[in-house]
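Issue 218. Parser rejects a valid record. Input:
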Amino acid sequence: MPDAFAHSRTGLLTLSVGLVVIVALASQLREFANSLLTTYTGERLLRGFRSRLFRHAQRLSLSYHDTQGTVDFHLSNSI
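Output the parser choked on:
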């Protein structure tokens, strides 16, 4: 630690405040990055699931869509 900070109360106070501000900014940056990464990952997974579901629905025949209602569910499809 430089002598200007070690022997001066004002210097120590300035250094302490500076360190607190740096730690607070680093914490906020980490929280922002965590939130951004979580949101990005979740949205990417959701987009992938929707894409797979849409491709699957497109592969089904038109007669299947005509005969099945929107709430019809077969237990054999879920196993």
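Fixed in the parser; the record now loads. The chain is about 80% helix and 0% strand.
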